[in-house]
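Hello, quick one for you while I still have it in my head. My current little project is about how a certain protein chain folds up. You're getting the sequence in one-letter code plus the fold written as tokens. Would you mind checking whether the tokens look sensible for this chain? Here's the protein in full, and shout if anything looks odd to you:
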Amino acid sequence: LEPTTCKIDPQKQNPALSRDFVPMTKHTSTPAAYAAAVPPAGDRPNDITVFGCTGNAGRAVALHVIKSATIAQSAGAENVPPPLRVGLAGRNPDKVRTVLEGIRDELGLGPVKDGDVNIIVADASDPDSMLSMARSSRVVISCAGPYNRYGEAAIVSCIEGGAHYVDITGEVPWIERMISEHGETAEKSGVTLLPFSGYDCVPAELGMYLSGKALEQAATGEKGDDGIGVVSQVNLAIRNVGGGFPRGTLETILDSVEGKMPQRREGDQWFYPKEYRTAAKMALSPSSFILPKWSHHFGTYTAPNLMTTVNVPILCRSAPTFGFSEDITISDRSIVSGKPSLLNGLGLIPSQIFITALLFGGLAMALPPFRWFLRRRLKTYSYNGDPLARVIADAEAVSKRGRDVAVATARLSVPGDAGIYATGLFAAAVANALHEVTSTPATKGRTSLLPPAGFHPPVAALRGCRPGVLTENLGKLGAEVSIKLTTKNGESKAIDPATIGSSL
């Protein structure tokens, strides 16, 4: 798909709805400002449309969007919001309908009825169909990947059609290119685009934000303790219980190995501020990434997190918005052992086995015959996800004054495997939050601010909107969020996520 220039009528932007979005820069020298998003104009028949719903991940996203619609309708009489109008979009309407029938059967909703869900025909190779889809929707979730091959059409159509955008990509170089080519137009049009709204990188970004902001509460009321609430280090640890490997992720890895991802060009914008390059390099260095690493928080050795190369750039882009210094140290790891014991070397043995398998896998990927064999197998490979699996993401923020002075921890526990089922839950929660804050006006006694226009990581964009908007939507779909602050007195207290910072 050739790059497309979207023509936006400046008269369509309502200046009364615009505000400056200024990231928190308490400890950083990289301020920035963005215009606010503009609520989609007109009476659009679809509140949330899932594009690419016939793929494995797309189906999981559609399932959770439809599930959230049923949850909203079954709420208490005093809190029933307007019914969420859902659209499912794809090239083949028969396949889309088959997906819809399967989802309704899985959720126990009975046969499909006319008007329950709108079926939309949209093809990434047909710009008119994509624009029609965008103009009929308030929020579009794009699930058609790999994104470096098929993703730009949805971005272009949403910007031109005035629909806000969510996706589940983990392709940082591609998003960097999209920002360079379409970021300015998106900001002028008042369209918010939230890539990385799946497993990459909601757990890591939300954990960093909640633990870091909880740590700042340790400084409340303290005198003479300069730096107690300043975050110097964020340690992330992900555990996946069950699950498998999504086909789209394997396709993206192969494209990356074969050099098919976008390469930086002169004039391209950097994905994150230059002040945070040292933090990123340290987190991605071989000694930090490959070798086993001891976790004080969990009392076990940890292994590399395969998503570190995705998570770290996103965290460095969000850090100045959260008010975290460019001197921050980021550690992003995986726990691959069960309970640490002497038999498994306190997690060292399974971590080393994982690292060895990872190295052999990397060597195999470097061989063209292996890649040919893998691509051939992927033509018939399918993994639909596992709702009985679980993703547990832990984050630990350490005070500048030291671990013994103050530590805050946040845990996000989500049902389902990381790549399919949990990703669907994350994307649906982000889309529901985005739809709410761009569709519901502020009322007396309730502040509802618009997110910034342009490209942003989801947590960074939604942190300044209605209190609890993201964690609340995650909770409705089965996620559990908890936060704990431990101070120098050894006292620990639980913190309500709705009281953190701008209250995600």
User: Anything to note?
Assistant: Residues 248 and 444 are 45 Å apart (CA to CA).
